[in-house]
Write a structure and sequence with these properties.
heterodimer; A: about 260 residues; mainly alpha; 9 helices; B: about 250 residues; alpha/beta; Rossmann fold; four-stranded antiparallel sheet; 8 helices; about 30% helix
Chain lengths: ~260, ~250
């Protein structure tokens, strides 16, 4: 019994201290946002990588998801004689949940992993130490631009995913399910509320922040050698995915249970 | 002048530095020798703040390094890393001119590039190399670029961490000669970490041997061959048998 309690206690201490380190890292990152020096070139490179270069994968994922959602809603709605709810459910499903979560997970897969691998490799090859000796703080030069890019690109990517997802549903519904295009669009627009859009953007911002922060955190804290780089990359994606889904639940609760 | 006073550093149960006392005079080229894993690189990194000592003091020209404003302090140093540590996301000239493109030493891009090309020439590299990326260069060329970066901002103190590791004997000789020339020409204080005795012969004014976390022996390079210390003799002559334990 004592052994179990001891193991549980040890697990709690490890988990809380890991969370504490992560929170301190996040606060340290945010504290650099307003303090010079700034590195605009690094920021725009990060914005390009996190935002623009994520557009194809985000767009394609959203397109197929929206299309599949329309088929599912039509099929499910037909069971209780309500197939006409397709535009409303596709819109609310994409904007409130699927758009943000898909973007979050896609960024975690594409961006978090690449940031973690890049930074871990920089650490292993002493490039991080070299930065310090060249009077450049890694938090400011490497971390802050990437996290800021995640914060800003997240909502834009979510807006793109929401729109393309709804478009995917629109194409399927109007081309194969016999919906009238004008009525479909009117039902979509009329059904969505500002709170839906706001929650979607807030989630995009939060998920962009989490995804880039996890990449930086695990990259800068990686172990030695190729194994260290691999472990850091894997752990960063796992942590980002889990935290994104947990944050999604928390934000949904905040926005829609009041 | 750099003074290490009773420096201790442990990583968990591994006691790497165990009371290091060492003085490097201004304008002197000090070479630290010692077996792998004896804490030579850690010693250098404590000066730059990359590793924080558990206890002890490090004074640079009389100022405690833990009390100094970091940016201004670090601009006095240059460092050649063991593996080069070049930023592979940027071309060679931007690596060399990194410090000249930001912070207090910032210059216009054109001027920074000119200085980078001049430093590349100084280490024997053609200007055409400037626009290539580090991954496109050989190991020897990467070391030269790293050396050019270390001297780009005209530092007062330069650290060389294993400058010849991974290079063939001829390229090692070239890097050793270059290192010596640069140290003499710039009149800098230099600390070099190596276990390459050819480097010691070429670069050193003084030599210190680190063993079991302490300075085992320190003296002029000319005295190294007859130091009278069995540890030093074993190391210098590369003998497997002797007071330094080796794993087989």
């Amino acid at each position: 019994m004592i052994l179990i309690v001891r193991a549980l206690g040890r697990f709690c201490i490890v988990a809380i201290s890991a969370l504490g380190r992560l929170v301190l890292f996040a606060l340290a990152t945010l504290s650099h946002v307003l303090r010079p020096p700034f590195y605009p070139r690094e920021f725009f490179n990060a914005l390009l990588n996190v935002g623009y270069l994520s557009l194809p994968v985000v767009g394609l994922t959203a397109l197929f998801t929206g299309a599949a959602l329309a088929l599912q809603i039509y099929s499910g709605g037909s069971r209780f004689n309500a197939p006409e709810v397709v535009p409303q459910i596709v819109a609310i499903g994409m904007v409130r949940e699927l758009g943000p979560v898909l973007v979050g997970l896609m960024i975690a897969a594409r961006v978090t992993s690449s940031i973690a691998a890049e930074m871990a490799t920089m650490k292993v090859t002493e490039q991080i130490d070299a930065l310090v000796t060249l009077s450049t703080a890694p938090m400011k030069y490497l971390v802050m631009p990437r996290v800021l890019a995640g914060l800003l690109a997240g909502p834009v990517l979510v807006a793109v995913a929401d729109s393309i997802g709804i478009f995917g549903g629109f194409i399927v519904a109007t081309q194969t399910l016999g919906f009238n295009p004008a009525t479909y669009l009117l039902n979509t627009v009329n059904f969505l509320t500002p709170a839906d859009i706001l929650s979607s953007m807030a989630k995009g911002m939060a998920f962009g922040f989490i995804a880039t922060l996890m990449g930086c955190y695990y990259g800068l804290n990686s172990g030695r050698g190729a194994l260290g780089v691999g472990t850091a990359t894997k752990a960063s994606v796992q942590a980002a995915a889990v935290l994104i889904l947990a944050a999604n639940f928390a934000l949904t609760a905040v926005f829609f249970t009041a | 002048m750099i003074i290490f006073e009773n420096i201790y550093k442990s990583f968990g149960e591994n006691h790497v530095l165990h009371g290091v006392n060492l003085t490097v005079e201004h304008g002197e080229s000090m070479v630290i020798i010692g077996g792998s894993g004896t804490g030579k690189s850690v010693l250098i990194k404590t000066v730059l703040g990359l590793v924080e000592p558990d206890s002890g003091r490090i004074l640079v020209d009389g100022e405690d390094v833990t009390q100094i404003k970091r940016d201004a302090f670090l601009s006095r140093f240059g460092m050649l890393f063991q593996g080069g540590a070049l930023f592979d996301s940027m071309p060679v000239w931007q690596n060399v001119a990194f410090r000249l493109q930001r912070g207090a030493l910032k210059r216009p891009a054109g001027e920074a590039r000119e200085i980078a090309i001049e430093k590349l020439r100084r280490v024997g590299l053609a200007p055409e190399v400037a626009d290539r990326f580090p991954a496109e260069l050989s190991g020897g060329m990467q070391k030269r670029v790293s050396l050019a970066r270390a001297i780009a901002a005209e530092p007062e103190i330069i650290f060389f961490d294993e400058p010849t590791t991974g290079l063939d004997p001829i390229m090692s000789g070239v890097i050793n000669e270059l290192t010596r020339e640069i140290v003499v020409e710039m009149g800098v204080t230099a600390m070099t970490i190596t276990h390459d005795m050819t480097s010691v012969d070429t670069i050193a004014d003084k030599v210190a041997m680190l063993h079991r976390g302490r300075i085992q022996w320190c003296g002029a390079r000319a005295d190294l061959a007859h130091s009278g210390d069995p540890h030093v003799e074993q190391f210098v002559n590369g003998r497997a048998e002797g007071p330094i334990e080796t794993l087989r």
